[in-house]
Design brief:
This protein is mainly alpha-helical and about 220 residues long. It contains seven helices and no strands. It has one domain: Phosphate transport system protein phou homolog 2, domain 2 (Methane Monooxygenase Hydroxylase, Chain G, domain 1, Up-down Bundle). The two termini are about 25 Å apart.
Length: about 220
């Protein structure tokens, strides 16, 4: 995206600043996802991370609002030349903000100190959490580098991750004899974080009218 901005010449100056702020939003989102998920699955006292988590979430929200203001100002000055990029960014900042929201949902679960199943189930969740964290890092790098081929690979992995979450959720909803509510919610939040990160990566391979849509994406997520 940054390279595309730079090709616009002098009109790109404000867009490059928006680009940098957006990357910070992605970094902050990954940070509070890791903190909240580790608190839920790793036993970190939620109170230890509370202040940092909510301070970071406030910064995400403030950055989103600042980017929106800058988009309006930039569009009013430069007009049609940057209009496609501004439309893309207006959509993507909401996806970045939603990653933070789902991290807070995970934190809310951690506060309840719920039962998370046996050691095998917990190990599986930790593995998926670690995989999702790595994908979040990759989504930030892809947005910065605009690597189309790597973005397509990423979206396939994102779709596979969502499919695994759905399969686990379906299995646990149909199970009997124990309370699976926490595990179902955790998997659902994981899936939504992944979906919003994938939406951001679609900006690399899809035109403006098809942001958030990509081959293989489940209809329920569209």
């Amino acid at each position: 995206m940054l390279r595309w901005f730079q090709r616009l010449g002098p009109e790109s100056r404000g867009l490059e600043e928006i680009h940098v702020r957006f990357l910070q939003m992605l970094q902050d989102g990954r940070h509070i996802f890791d903190a909240a998920a580790n608190s839920l699955l790793g036993g970190t006292d939620p109170e230890v991370i509370r202040e940092d988590l909510f301070r970071t979430d406030i910064r995400i929200n403030e950055t989103e609002q600042r980017i929106r203001r800058e988009i309006v100002v930039h569009g009013s000055i430069h007009g049609a030349a940057t209009f496609p990029a501004l439309l893309v960014m207006m959509s993507l900042v909401k996806d970045a903000e939603r990653i933070g929201d789902y991290a807070k949902n995970l934190f809310d679960l951690a506060i309840l100190r719920p039962e998370l199943g046996d050691e095998e189930e917990l190990t599986h969740l930790v593995e998926e959490k670690d995989r999702l964290s790595r994908l979040l890092v990759r989504s930030q790098g892809l947005f910065d580098s605009h690597d189309v081929d790597a973005a397509r690979v990423f979206l396939k992995e994102a779709d596979a991750f969502a499919d695994r979450c759905d399969a686990e959720i379906d299995r646990r909803i149909k199970s009997t004899g124990k309370n699976e509510a926490t595990l179902v919610l955790c998997l659902r939040y994981f899936k939504r974080v992944m979906s919003h990160a994938a939406n951001i990566v679609t900006s690399i391979v899809m035109p403006v009218d098809k942001l958030d849509y990509y081959p293989g994406k489940a209809m329920s997520e569209q």
